[in-house]
User: Fold this.
Amino acid sequence: NAGVTQTPKFQVLKTGQSMTLQCAQDMNHNSMYWYRQDPGMGLRLIYYSASEGTTDKGEVPNGYNVSRLNKREFSLRLESAAPSQTSVYFCASSEMDRSVYEQYFGPGTRLTVT
Amino acid sequence: GESVGLHLPTLSVQEGDNSIINCAYSNSASDYFIWYKQESGKGPQFIIDIRSNMDKRQGQRVTVLLNKTVKHLSLQIAATQPGDSAVYFCAEIRGNTPLVFGKGTRLSVIA
Assistant:
């Protein structure tokens, strides 16, 4: 099992450019999440998908869109990148059963917007 | 707003000593807490969890203590090793909402 995979690992964008961060999990998990992590900060939830076909906003959704393509894949799109979106982005997945909340995280995508 | 926080941003301990990382939470409705470890350049990794109806839970070299009276959570690491150097996050769950993470404590192990 690869667990949670993310592509790309690194990306540099110019202000106004768009891009999509890809995430896939092979653990048959129902729920998937996108977080951003800024220096000296904890993880902040951008969007999540409790189950295939549903998406919900998290704490910091502005400037992002998501697509739950299927049970395995959950992508994050920046339509018009801004310097404030420079961050490390983590995707995670979990069973989302009330008895099992452990989230499994991918290795992250380091994004720089100039 | 209500949030999960940490008392100390950095902690340095001698190899072999015990480490205690603290976390305060403000929402008494939180019913589940998790500790994550994040090594440099990697995603967070689950360490241990505890439900709000418990006071203590032990894992391998780690113990989590929950004091609901003062809304305080701690992670104890026994015989700290260089491989324990990382940032540690506590996170809470309230009902069916996703995890809320604290800012993290950096643990540095001195050989």
User: Anything to note?
Assistant: The longest strand of chain B covers residues 86-93. Residues 1-8 of chain B have pLDDT under 50 and may be disordered.
